[in-house]
Design brief:
The complex is a heterodimer of chains A (about 200) and B (about 350). Chain A is α/β, with parallel strands linked by helices and about 200 residues long. Chain A has seven helices and seven strands. Chain A has a seven-stranded mixed beta sheet with strand order 2-1-3-4-6-5-7, with helices on both faces. In chain A, helix 6 (about 145-160) links the parallel strand 5 (about 130-135) and strand 6. The N and C termini of chain A lie far apart (about 50 Å). Chain B has about 350 residues and is α/β, with parallel strands linked by helices. Chain B folds into two domains: about 5-180, 3-Layer(aba) Sandwich (Rossmann fold), CATH 3.40.50; about 250-355, Rossmann fold. Helix content of chain B is about 40%, strand content about 20%. Chain B is built from 13 helices and 16 strands. The chains are: A alpha/beta (about 200), B alpha/beta (about 350). At the A-B interface, strand 1, strand 2, helix 2 and helix 4 of A face helix 3, helix 4 and strand 10 of B. Strand 2 (about 45-50) of chain A pairs parallel with strand 10 (about 210) of chain B, so a sheet runs across the interface.
Chain lengths: ~200, ~350
């Protein structure tokens, strides 16, 4: 019996970005918990599952062993902004040379009310180590900005620059609530950290 | 070969390096702080990596990743930290990734206390958290065994693609003894595991996936049965084919009472056995060196010749259940334990034994 698995549009964006940077020494993705755990089905390169929220730590271990490989996590808000908040903060604070792709569908990671949502980009921007932090919107008919942001993160990693974080505001079909849409409009979409000026390059 | 005077946890750390371990992720705790300190100093000398993780959850998940990438990797903790690591260990075991995990047990639940105990037996031998999995569990009782079991642990972890636990206590970890270490380091090729992730020169290829969750339920059941069959092979290896690896029997040939203990307790029991023999009581010692798989067959055989068993632990009684299951009612099994960090004296144990036997 097959479980229902809804492919994530961010998956396509990641493939596009990987193709653009063309890594030559291995590619490893690390999957989150929830439906995203099966994202590896849609990629044709190595993948590792992880326990709730711990993808950045798993990716750190992989990258320490395989420093030349492109190592990234794909995480959604139920994984990163809830159970995994500590892990992403500490991976960023260690300056791990990995890329974290955060697909925020604006449905989890809050403490009771919509006003209580933790804004991850703003939070990580207070750390000294990250080299690139950005928040972009991916819309059904326009994913160019998101793909460019992921490419930037991957390029920085391949140049051994350090930790990059890309938050993609992306509403999945079953979470298309008015509250989520409101959040999508409300959050500032901008580059928070760009130590190497890659946005201008 | 020259012997060196070393602390148990330092001998373990050096043995790990000799076994080809080049990655350690952990955070220092009192019972084995020297283990972390030793590796922080010596791993960089062999181009290894030491990462002091923010917490135990980070550490075990870095182990998860490093093992998936093909490295020989280790972490350590002490009871409380081991509880935090459990979800990661479950994932590592179910994903069939090899690693060595050290637990220097301390007393109590939650934060516990920095004193020796054996209250983590159930957690170590029953898997530790949800899911159908087991871990191989070694129980060293000397500094020499801290080293030997670590080297064996890395080899068995790779052979069976499964985590190996070194279940020590804070006495074995902290005491100093002469230890003999292999002169030559184990020759380990980090690119030798074809299932590993991110192997050099690979790009888009027949991908490797480390996963314990499956989109098809039949596949999950098939995977769980596959794990079960592997654990049966491991059980057979230690309980039938290599019995000497799993248990030490001391003066058991004619023993009317067999004392049972592991780790530091077994050292006390050797003294008690000798005291008993001097008083005309035929006592023996059975010391499980591997706690899972438990040496069930050895205890069945012992039960044919002895009259009774007495299990001594630094807990309220955990391993005693495995002894009772192995003996299966053939002979009575008694228990004596101290807990919460208290270590029984040989005199105290002798008094308990003397209640069960007739002294001259």
């Amino acid at each position: 019996m097959s479980m229902n698995f809804q492919p994530d549009p961010v998956q396509t964006m990641i493939v596009e970005a990987v193709d653009a940077v063309s890594p030559t020494s291995g590619i490893v993705g690390v999957a989150p918990v929830s439906c995203g755990a099966f994202i590896y089905d849609g990629f044709d390169f190595d993948f590792c599952q992880s326990v709730p929220g711990c993808a950045p730590a798993v990716a750190s271990g992989i990258k320490r062993v395989r420093p030349k490989a492109l190592v990234f996590t794909y995480q959604n808000d139920i994984d990163l902004a809830a159970a995994g908040l500590s892990e992403v903060i500490h991976a960023a604070n260690r300056g791990e040379n990995i890329s974290v792709i955060y697909a925020n569908s604006a449905s989890c990671g809050l403490d009771g009310t919509d006003d209580s949502r933790i804004k991850i980009c703003e939070l990580l921007s207070g750390l000294n180590q990250p080299v690139y932090i950005t928040r972009v919107v991916a819309r059904e008919n326009n994913t160019k900005e998101a793909v460019e942001a992921i490419k930037n993160a991957f390029k920085l990693q391949m140049e051994n620059k350090g930790f990059a974080f890309v938050e993609i505001l992306s509403l999945s079909a079953d979470e298309d609530s008015s509250e989520s849409k409101a959040l999508l409009e409300e959050l500032p979409k901008k580059v928070f950290v760009d130590k190497y000026g890659i946005e201008k390059a | 070969m020259a012997k060196r005077l070393m602390k148990g946890c330092e001998a373990l750390a050096q043995a790990a390096i000799l076994a080809g371990c080049r990655y350690y992720f952990g955070s220092p705790v009192a019972q084995q702080a020297e283990l972390s300190a030793y590796l922080a100093k010596h791993l960089p000398l062999v181009e290894g990596t030491y990462v002091q993780a923010a917490d135990e959850i980070s550490a075990i998940n870095m182990v998860y990743g490093a093992s998936a990438a093909g490295a020989r990797v280790m972490t350590s903790g002490s009871s409380t930290g081991m509880s935090l690591k459990q979800e990661g260990i479950s994932g590592i075991a179910a994903s069939e990734l090899p690693c060595v995990i050290v637990n220097t047990m301390c007393g109590g639940s939650v934060a516990g206390a920095s004193c020796p105990a054996q209250a983590d037996y159930w957690q170590a031998t029953r898997g530790g958290t949800h899911g159908d999995y087991r871990n191989i569990v070694f129980a060293p009782y000397s500094v020499q065994e801290m080293a030997d079991m670590t080297i064996a642990g890395f080899n068995y972890a790779d052979r069976f693609r499964t985590p190996v636990l070194i279940l020590a206590d804070s006495i074995v970890s902290q005491m100093m003894e002469p230890v003999e270490l292999p002169k030559m380091p184990f020759d380990y090729d980090i690119d030798s595991k074809k299932w590993a992730l991110g192997l050099p020169g690979t790009n888009k290829h027949n991908k490797n996936v480390c996963a314990s969750t499956f989109t098809v339920q039949d596949e999950l059941e098939e995977h769980n049965w596959h794990l079960y069959q592997k654990y049966q092979v491991i059980e057979k290896h230690f309980t039938e084919e290599n019995k000497d690896l799993a248990i030490e029997e001391y003066m058991c040939e004619d023993a009317e009472i067999v004392l049972v203990g592991y780790g530091i307790i077994a050292r006390l029991l050797k003294t008690v056995v000798e005291k008993c023999r001097k008083r005309g009581v035929k006592a023996g010692l059975a010391r499980p060196k591997i706690l899972w798989p438990f040496p069930t067959n050895a205890f069945k055989k012992l039960a044919q010749n002895t009259e009774k068993f007495m299990v001594i632990e630094m807990s309220c009684g955990q391993m005693v259940e495995d002894v009772k299951m192995a003996v299966n009612g053939a002979k009575p099994v008694y228990f004596f334990g101290r807990t919460g960090g208290a270590v029984p004296s040989d005199f105290e144990i002798f008094n308990e034994v003397s209640k069960l036997v007739c002294l001259d």
